[in-house]
Design brief:
Blueprint (H helix, E strand, L loop, with lengths): L2 E5 L1 H10 L4 E6 L6 H12 L4 E3 L2 H8 L7 E6 L7 H6 L6 E6 L4 H14 L3 E5 L8 H7 L8 E4 L2 H10 L3 E5 L16 E6 L7 H6 L2 E3 L12 H19 L1
Parallel strand pairs: 2-3, 5-6, 5-9, 6-7, 8-9, 8-10
Antiparallel strand pairs: 1-4, 2-4
Helix pairs in contact: 5-6, 5-9
């Protein structure tokens, strides 16, 4: 089975909590003897995980440029993938989805997965050709959410949005110039937010396939937000409405 690389305390710690049996080996810098590293070593050994020493140069090569903080793990790939047809079969009134259009930065992608997990999102939908992969940087930013949130990869995002709408999902895209705000939509039933990368935003065809567009009210000097921050604002408005409706 193919191994993935987990770099840094968050990524290694998250896998240790959720699926320690999937960790093949952990490499740690022996020159780092602080309390955080000592505690991590103790937890790994208590879980029966093999820990080997590796210097910073070797860890740098394994982590491929991702800050590793002196610890890197090799573990089975456990991120959850879901077929789009299966997702359509699982749509209910409680469905909440996050659709990402053109988010190619792996750190942003991982952070979006982490946000999606926190909001109880059923799945994250991404296009096959315009999305970051599950790289070490994405895994680190996801902090364990890659193992819990299903990722659905589709060939044609615009067509998939239409199919979601046909299945009863209200699909709203975000755009800074939109007249309506994210607070103007009833989100207690099957609902999906569509977000694009900071700067480029949503592609025109993606916008056209959404039911409507919404803006996040901005009262300061900045004109846009990081996509994971924007996802958190949108998704937790959905969470707020659903909690209030109970």
């Amino acid at each position: 089975m193919k191994n993935s690389v987990l770099a840094g305390f968050h990524a290694v710690g998250a896998r240790l909590r959720t699926a320690p049996e999937t960790i093949s080996v952990v490499y740690a810098d022996p020159s780092r003897r602080d309390k955080r590293m000592r505690d991590m070593r103790e937890k790994l050994l208590a879980a029966g995980v093999r820990v080997m020493n590796a210097d910073a140069k070797r860890l740098d090569g394994m982590a491929s440029g991702v800050p590793h903080q002196g610890i890197v793990a090799l573990a089975e790939e456990t991120h959850v993938e879901l077929d789009f047809a299966d997702l359509l079969d699982q749509i209910t009134d409680k469905t909440l989805l996050l659709i990402l259009d053109g988010v190619t930065d792996p750190r942003n992608f991982g952070a979006c997965l982490r946000t999606a997990d926190a909001a109880g999102v059923q799945a994250v939908v991404v296009p096959r050709d315009r999305s970051a992969g599950m790289t070490p940087a994405a895994m680190k930013a996801a902090a364990g959410a890659a193992e819990t949130v299903p990722v659905v990869t589709v060939t044609n995002l615009a067509a998939s949005i239409v199919e979601l709408r046909d299945a009863g999902v209200t699909v709203v895209g975000t755009a800074g110039e939109a007249v309506k705000s994210i607070y103007d939509f009833e989100q207690t039933r099957a609902f999906a937010w569509v977000l694009g990368a900071e700067g480029d935003g949503l592609r025109q065809l993606t916008r056209k396939r959404c039911d409507d567009l919404a803006a996040i009210p901005m009262t300061g000097a900045v004109e846009s937000l990081n996509v994971s921050v924007a996802a958190g604002i949108c998704l937790f408005e959905s969470v707020r409405q659903r909690l209030a409706a109970k």
